[in-house]
Write a structure and sequence with these properties.
This protein has about 350 residues and is α+β, with helices and mostly antiparallel strands. It is about 30% helix and about 30% strand. The protein has 2 domains: about 130 residues, 3-Layer(aba) Sandwich (Aminopeptidase), CATH 3.40.630.30; about 190 residues, Gcn5-related N-acetyltransferase (GNAT) (Aminopeptidase), CATH 3.40.630. The strands form 2 sheets. Strands 1, 2, 3, 4, 5, 6, 9, 15 and 16 form a 9-stranded mixed beta sheet that branches. The longest helix is centred in the C-terminal third of the chain and has 17 residues.
Length: about 350
């Protein structure tokens, strides 16, 4: 068995592997390349995708997303683990223990294992990960009857769901609230806002404008938009993203990567109100967030969303800075840190 960096010449073989594993990303090479070959870290020459070669064929994959994080005000490197798949014939043979070291041995000080399945989280816990609780889904179903009818129609006719686009809605979004505009401030101003907001938390994914543009504006399926919330002076006070969550049968509008001043909770309430109006105006069946931030969770519930499910996650800290997984409510993360927009 070998672990090799992904080679574009093996795309057809990788596509067949994804087909066997019933993973839709195999039908969308443009999404795969955006996710792993055009990400900010990949642009700087960091390998983001490995393949497991067994008996001359691709038998598994390991995907990574590398980004900086702020931990108690210090900027460290984090690495998230995703798209970990193994052929059924290799399962139950200790593959987790063989492959997890390829994750742990990456240079990032913080390893994040989001949305883990029970077998993979068990393997991670055996290798020094701590279980991370408190990160959960919240959702409001805006049109349950229409959603049920669409689902029944698709099953009866075997028709797939047409993936929604974001660009047709941009002008409509700007008419919903005079203080919300399509992101237009210069990069340095936005990066200052992002840094200032993230440093208010003991732990925060250190997003910058390069990462947000890649995540939401460069996605080949036009799923996202970046918005700024302007204060009384007309200057941006908060930055957030909306993205179509393309899983299941519902067209769900995800509120993601919300950066706001914790001293101005009224801004967060206004953004949640905007999120609801946007989802209704865009014809979404539901709206959702995915967060471990207590303030954002409470604001979501106050605006009509309900707790759906809590996820199993893991974290491995090899830095010298103390981190307490029990304080997950102070860990700033939201939908942008998941694969929902993929």
């Amino acid at each position: 068995m070998e672990i090799l960096e992904y080679d574009e010449r093996r795309w057809d073989e990788l596509r067949e592997f994804f087909r066997v594993m019933n993973q839709g990303i195999g039908r969308e090479p443009d999404v795969f390349r955006w996710k792993y070959l055009k990400a900010p870290a990949a642009r700087r020459g960091v390998s983001q995708f490995l393949t497991v070669i067994d008996q001359g064929e691709i038998a598994g994959t390991l995907g990574f997303t590398e980004c900086p994080v702020y931990v108690h005000g210090q900027k460290l490197l984090s690495c998230a683990f995703n798209d970990w798949y193994i052929l059924p014939r290799l399962r139950g043979k200790g593959m987790g223990d063989k492959l997890i070291p390829y994750f742990i041995n990456r240079p990032a000080e913080i390893k994040l294992h989001f949305l883990s399945s029970p077998p993979s989280i068990k393997a991670a816990l055996r290798h020094g990960f701590d279980q991370l609780h408190g990160i959960a889904d919240h959702m409001e179903y805006l049109a349950p009857a229409r959603s049920a009818m669409q689902c029944a129609w698709r099953k009866a006719t075997r028709r797939g769901r047409r993936r929604p686009k974001m660009k047709p809605h941009l002008k409509r979004l700007e008419r919903l609230d005079p203080c919300v505009k399509i992101l237009g401030a210069d990069d340095s101003q936005i990066n200052d806002i992002l840094t200032r907001c993230q440093l208010q938390y003991p732990f925060a994914c250190a997003r910058d404008i390069e990462y947000l543009r890649w995540r939401y504006l460069e996605h080949p399926k036009d799923l996202g938009v970046l918005l700024q919330f302007n204060g009384d002076t007309g200057l941006p006070q908060a930055v957030f993203a909306l993205a179509w969550r393309c899983t299941g049968v519902r067209d769900t509008l995800l509120l993601a990567d919300v950066y706001y001043d914790r001293k101005r909770p009224e801004d967060l309430r206004r953004i949640l109100q905007f999120h609801r109006r946007a989802a209704i105006a865009m014809g979404a069946n539901a709206r959702s967030i995915y967060t471990g931030n207590m303030e954002l969770s409470q604001a979501a519930k106050a605006s009509g969303m309900t707790h759906i499910s809590e996820r199993t996650n893991g974290i491995h800290n090899s830095s010298e800075l103390p981190l307490d997984p029990a304080k997950a409510t102070e860990w700033y993360t939201s939908g942008g840190d998941t694969d929902y927009v993929s």
